[in-house]
Automatic annotation (TrEMBL):
Protein origin, superkingdom: Eukaryota
Gene Ontology molecular function: any one: triacylglycerol lipase activity
Subcellular localization(s) per the UniProt record: Secreted
Protein name, per record: Lipase domain-containing protein
């Protein structure tokens, strides 16, 4: 069992298309160089990995707008005509959607969020499909290394959009789930005034407790918010970080066990969890995926927002020590959080949600 867990999800190098390389550096034309020395190798990242090349990753950028909701335009940062001949318009805000490990641009949350964003606003939606670099046949360590190149590619595309169409960085918003949240961080690190990053349950393994340059952090955009929903330690099958990573960090239901997800009430036995891993991947990642569902719900049901209360911890919130929004300055979880969240760094917001859509409790 432990060999299965480690080789398929975390540390063992060399499985199928994964790679293991000694300390070194790789360079890729316009994207620059990537090394595997500290802080990218550390106690939290004990095995050094170098990212794949852009050719190996084959990252694709799929543009959707209200004019082409079902058939995307392919954008390429090294092909000006792909931008000029697309439906991209600089006057619109631009939303990037970035999936995580064991996922793709066709994943249901990505497509669902694309659709609700286009329903809500006239925006450019760019789906970042880095499926080959996040393939489940890879070991997890190689996938984490690949996030750095994907982030650099997003930054380069944003630069190209600015150069060729006049689109402004401050009007770009990157929404990333799991490893995709850290992809967004790497993109923002290379830009001067990226408008916003939303981290949907940023991935924990190889990131929690690391140097800010390794993970998503508040300096990566003018406003960084995060929704934490699966913050148990990874050895307890938690996939998300509990550490704050933004200006506003939301912890619905304490940031760990989400109502309605299997295993959060009675089924905590190790054997039951093992059976779920081998039979139904989504049951194990239900808490992790809830962050995406909450984000989508925050767009669809904007008139009944999920209100987060700034508080020291979840227990204090549950005992009513942080109820007064007038004094504390509460904030809206999700898409519209930038309207009323505090702009200080690492403000923690706690709230409770229902087990299904709509997730908002009566206010």
């Amino acid at each position: 069992f432990f060999k299965f867990l480690l080789s398929d999800l975390y540390f063992i190098p060399g499985k199928l298309t994964g790679t293991f390389r000694s300390s070194g550096e790789v360079c890729f034309d316009e994207l620059g160089c990537f090394g595997d020395s500290r802080p990218f190798t550390s106690l939290q990242r004990p095995i050094p990995y170098l990212p794949w090349s852009p050719v190996e990753l084959n990252t694709e950028f799929w543009l959707y707008t209200r004019l082409n909701r079902r058939t995307y335009n392919v954008l390429k940062y090294n092909d000006q005509t792909s931008i000029n001949n697309s439906h991209f318009r600089a006057i619109r805000p631009t939303k990037f959607l970035v999936h995580g490990f064991v996922s793709s641009g066709e994943t249901s949350w990505v497509q669902d969020m694309k659709n609700v964003l286009l329903d809500a606003e006239d925006v450019n939606v760019i789906v970042v499909n880095w499926e080959q670099g996040a393939n489940p046949k890879l070991n997890y360590g190689q996938a984490t290394a690949n996030t750095r190149v994907v982030g650099a590619e997003i930054a380069l595309l944003i630069n190209r959009l600015e150069e060729q169409s006049g689109a402004l960085e401050k009007n770009a918003h990157i929404i990333g789930h799991g490893l995709g949240a850290h992809v967004a961080g790497y993109a923002g690190e290379r830009l001067k005034r990226l408008g916003r990053i939303t981290g949907l349950d940023p991935a924990e393994p190889f990131y929690q407790g690391t140097d800010p340059v390794v993970r998503l952090d508040p300096t990566d955009a003018l406003y960084v918010d995060a929704i934490h929903t699966d913050g148990k330690p990874y050895w307890q099958f938690g996939w998300g970080m509990m550490d704050p990573v933004g200006h506003a960090d939301f912890y619905p239901n304490g940031g760990q066990d989400q109502p309605g997800c299997p295993g959060n009430e009675e089924e905590s036995d190790f054997i039951i969890v093992f059976c779920k891993i081998t039979s139904n991947w989504w049951e194990v990642t239900c808490n992790h995926g809830r962050s995406c569902e909450l984000m989508i719900d925050s767009i669809v049901n904007a008139k009944t927002p999920m209100i987060g209360h700034p508080c020291a911890d979840y227990d204090s919130y549950l005992t009513g020590k942080c109820d007064n929004c007038a004094e504390a300055g509460c904030a809206t979880l999700g898409y519209y959080s930038d309207a009323n969240a505090q702009k200080a760094v690492s403000v923690k917001y706690y709230l409770q949600t229902r087990s299904e859509v709509p997730f908002t409790f009566c206010q």
